[in-house]
Amino acid sequence: MPDTTISTTRRGVIQRWTATIIPTTREAPTDAEVPSHVLLHRAGFIRPVGAGIYDYLPLAWRSLTKIAAIVREEMDAAGASEMLMPALEPFELFKDTKRDETYGDNLFRLKDRKGRTNALAPTHEEVITDLMKGVLTSYKQLPLNLYQVQTKFRDEARPRAGLLRCREFIMKDAYSFHLTLDGPGGLGDTYDRMFTAYSNIFRRCGLSFKAVEAESGPIGGSASHEFMVTCESGEDTVLTCAASGYAANVEKCEIGARPRGTFQEPPTGDLAEVHTPNLPGIDEVGKFMKVKPDRMLKTIVFRAAGGGGGGGGGGGVPAWVVAVVRGDHDVNEGKVKALAGVDAVALASLEEAKKAGFAVGYVSPRVVNTVPGVRLLIDADASLGGFWASGADKADHHVKHFNWRREVGAALDDPARVIVGDVRNAAAGDPSPRAEGSALATTRGIEVGHIFKLGTKYSDAMGLKVLDDQQKSASVIMGCYGIGVSRTLAAAVEQNHDANGILFPAAIAPYHAVITVMKPDDSRQADAAGRLADALARAGVDVLIDDRDERPGVKFKDADLIGVPVRLTVGDKALDQDAVEFKLRKDTAGKGENVPMSGIVERCVGALNG
User: Fold this and answer.
1) How much is the pTM?
2) Does residue 35 sit in helix, strand or coil?
3) Considering just the CA atoms, what is the radius of gyration of the chain in Å?
4) Domain 14-20+511-609 falls under CATH 3.40.1280.10
5) Which of 22, 65, 211, 554 keeps 20 to 30 A from 453, CA to CA?
6) What is the CATH topology of the domain spanning 272-421?
7) Any idea where the domains of the chain sit in the sequence?
8) pLDDT for position 3
9) Could you tell me if 325 and 331 are in contact, meaning their C-beta atoms sit under 8 angstroms apart?
């Protein structure tokens, strides 16, 4: 699809400020935490209805419809077909996938008048899979890719940041269906098409973004990529390698080869127990013991489920997985699951862990010898020799001079019980997993899109099968592809604003140009503004005429606040020269320049498409 913003094949929209509602204000919401929340409220785009629920006012809706139009054009160009599914989902659809348990309290639940439980859809995997069970019978109907743009619901515990974290939001979700993973018509082929389509979408929206490797989260599946709009206020951490181009979010990012301990290093002293009461965190414990966090062992207890066949240790499925990292690092749940070779892990509850024999908050690696069914995972950094402090496996106590060989013993030599590897979140300065000698760097980003290779996760659970070319029943392979449409609007503002307000990329600005009429009651100025707006509209430019009876300073401030890319000012001085004042929103210094009426349309279109 073309990247140009203005198309002369369509007539632009003309709207007058006095005929719409743009309630600009100088006051920010009291709960605003990020620039987009502040500016979308101040610029009159959104107003709260309840916690995490918003009215989209006319300016917001115009931008949202432009984002959605770009999404539709690129999805259609990639071979997908649009449909619409209900927001209300019968709860029995979750019977086989158990995703009601995965989503937990984030899933809106409600009962109808007959007492049946329903859900407000967070996504539509179950609905689309159930639909396909009734319409797919043969491999000849594949591949298929169906999408919708619709409202979704998640009962966020703490809805915040305006449109970045809502309980009700607008999303494009797509689902593809295949018989094979690779080759023409396979999942990989459509996944690549979606990757390209998403790249086109965010590029056409005028956003700077990165596609990063990611975890699948509650959606499930194997490979996935997130599309991150890069900005300092982003809520997600992205790690990149400049040498290789590798990028991943912190939940997925691998770490390159690191030195590992031999477990033969001598003790640094006799094991010394320290009473550490009423110290809630590792930093407080470290200060009390005069030990830096990077010389402490953080030991986290997980419940395990199923055998994934990985981990390199064999030995069946453990009841418990205990992960050990350095005190200044964070355990990565996805890496724990992969290294342990199990299907799932979850943080152990306080009650069940205590019942099993763990001194929660004071656990040490020694539990591999004292609690039955433990598989111990040691991060490479935590496996090194030297001084270590650890929990003492006794409430309100820690120990100094922990030594791996002395304290853990022969279990270290049993690969079914102890595995050394990567179980922590990557951090800036860690070795790159793709380029030896290079280090990872961090940036911040906002997730606006996510694509998944689901495989047969849902088709197996719900019985979606077709007959293949050998007339044998085969599970349908699926892909899933989501874009946060309302989130993209907020992300665009996070990335494009200054002290005066929003600086919209032209493609998704509610209007391309605002005509500020200095004296709306003056017939010459009013007529000139009308003729100018009509000429711009004929060229495909969307125009907002500010015809309010307000001081010029108020109008200029509001024009900057709402972020329209081009400001045209109609006043007597310019009209005396048969001209109009032209100024780009991004040019904050100085006044605009007078451009002859005969050339203003070309000047505007060139600036918007430039």
Assistant:
1) 0.88
2) helix
3) 29
4) no
5) 65
6) YbaK protein (3.90.960)
7) 14-20+511-609, 35-254+443-493, 272-421
8) 59
9) yes
